[in-house]
Amino acid sequence: MSLLTPQNAARAIGVGRIAFGAALLAVPARIGESWLGEGGTGAPAQVALRGLGARDAVIGMAMVRTAGDRDRGSRWARTSAVGDLADIVATVAARGLLPRSGVLGTVALGGATAAASIAAGEWLRRQG
Fold it and tell me: Is the Cβ–Cβ distance between 126 and 10 less than 8 Å?
């Protein structure tokens, strides 16, 4: 039996989202500074980053929980991709105000995670 299954792929993405969400909740200023620059360390930015962390953790938990369900699992995988794409669009729109490394990191990590989520969702959907 292979460990590489659509369910395990969705679970792995979900666990990654949970971990990233937990990091945003625990140390928003640290992540905020690398992504948003100095403005990411202030209290208002930390409020938004913690909200983003909660979003990521909840989506991750839903992905882990529904990975065995073809229909719900594929929908949560697509939801994961939409969240990442929204982060990319927002970051690129503000790229002139953000550190280059934060923009490139968001596009690279968010793009890879969005692509993986779309692929896992489609793989789940086709199972059964």
Answer: no
